[in-house]
Amino acid sequence: MPSLDDLKKRIKSVKSTQKITKAMKMVAAAKLRKAQESAEKGRPYSQKMQNIILNLTKSINDPQNAPKLLVGTGEDKKYLCVVLTADRGLCGGFNSNICKLAKNNFKKILGEGKELNIITVGSKGYDQIKREYGKYVIKKFSFKDKKSISFNEADEVGKEIISLFNQNKFDKCIIFYNNFKNVITQIPQAQQIIPAETKNLKEGYDESFSYEFEPEEDEILEDLLPKNISTQVFKALLENAASEQGSRMTAMDNATRNAGDLVDKLTIDYNRSRQASITKELIEIISGAESL
Amino acid sequence: MSDLFTVEIISPEQSILKQETNEATIPSYEGQMGILKNHIPLITFLRPGIITIKTNVEKKFYVEEGTVEFSNNNLLILTSTANDLANLDKALVNDLLKEAELQLNNTDSTDKERYVAAYKIETLREISQLRG
To answer: Which of A2, A82, A113, B12 has the fewest CB within 10 Å, making it most exposed?
Structure first.
């Protein structure tokens, strides 16, 4: 049985932990609003971009000569996986969920005897992946010192992907990130960005216009496809940022509640042992008086 | 019948503008292009220049690059650099101008980069002249 003093100390320490988690929850909630807003604002751009590309793809008559970024190299041997995670911890299963999904995919890719390269964005992802797959990581990005994500960061990642593609380092590129559904639900996702997955695009978008292209359509595609890669990365980064805050908020909310429960339990223990010691003292006094 | 159509300018960070308009002029890659209602479906991209949107009030945006799609009387402009001319301050214009001049004189630049840089300079000069 811990002494009264020990219990008192524990209650105090749990209470101060609770204060910390509560503060973190508030901060996450404030950041979440901002992140969610920018994720929602960023959605139309990537969606419209995809629509344009879809329209362009439809009008390609000669798939043999189509840009490789769109149709792929025609091979299926080398994979590039881009794992997008957060730079900070204490956000529940956020980072682990992405890594788990990514690792399952790694296993599958390696199991099929294919070549694997990994790029990590965010230091937490690298930490989790490096133990098993460290030797496959060819580059790691971290935007820890950036306050908010802008398109430039995504462009940096996008350009790296494209330059690797042009060097023939991979045939397929998959990005892993958390899709922000709502505050409590974030869905880890694997999205193939090279070659562009057309079946994933909005179905029923069948406005079959014959577009006028200026300049030629392949020139437009050449300009647009690299941009689309960066846009997809940017979208993933924004979704991730919102998910991270949402996940942290829920995790911290749970932690605060748990701390509350623990304080209640400890308080009961504390009161019980206080009462026990008072009773014991009383009995001693009474029995002492009786013997006189 | 009204001869209005919708114009949307969207950047990766946010949607900048969505409104009805009579006429829009965009600096397409191969030349200035005026768009009215019922234009043929079109996809093109932009060179540095000024987008002008004409309604009762004229709105002007400075853009460096972007993609344009016109379909169903909906003009969609996707660009990462759209600045409302009214908000563009002189120091920024000068900075951009210097940058573009550097690029133009850089011997490593490709012809395409130079072509773009030349337009950038022209547009920026025009803007700073407007400002006086």
So the answer is: A113
Task: Please indicate whether residue A91 is annotated as part of the active site.
Answer: yes
Nearest to A201 by CA among A47, A82, A43, A42: A47
Q: CATH class for domain B5-85?
A: mainly beta
Residue contact B41–A211, C-beta within 8 A: yes
CA–CA distance, B9 with B18 (Å, rounded to integer)? 7
DSSP string, A215-279: S-HHHHHHHHHHHHHHHHHHHHHHHHHHHHHHHHHHHHHHHHHHHHHHHHHHHHHHHHHHHHHHH
Predicted TM-score (pTM) of this structure: 0.84
Q: Where are the domains of chain B?
A: 5-85, 89-131
Q: Which of residues 73-132 of A touch B (CB under 8 A)?
A: none
* Structure token pair of residue A21: 């988690």
Q: Which of B41, B67, B80 has its CB closest to that of A212? A: B41
pLDDT in tens, A259-281: 999 999 999 999 999 999 999 99
Q: Which fold has domain A45-250?
A: Pyruvate Kinase; Chain: A, domain 1 (3.40.1380)
pLDDT digits (tens, 9 = 90+) for B91-132: 888 888 888 888 888 777 788 888 888 888 888 888 888 776
DSSP 8-state assignment for residue A113 = T
Backbone angle region of A18, left / alpha / beta, with phi > 0 → left and psi within -120 to 50 → alpha: alpha
Largest alpha-carbon pair distance within chain B? 54
Q: How many whole angstroms separate alpha carbon A210 and alpha carbon A216?
A: 13
Q: Name the strand (E) or helix (H) holding A121.
A: strand A115-121
Q: pLDDT tens digits for A66-124?
A: 777 777 777 788 899 999 999 888 888 899 999 999 999 999 999 998 989 999 998 89
Residues of A in contact with B12 (CB under 8 A): 42, 45-46, 151, 154, 231, 234
Domain locations in chain A as residue ranges: 45-250
Q: Where are the alpha helices (DSSP H) in A59-149?
A: 68-71, 94-111, 123-133
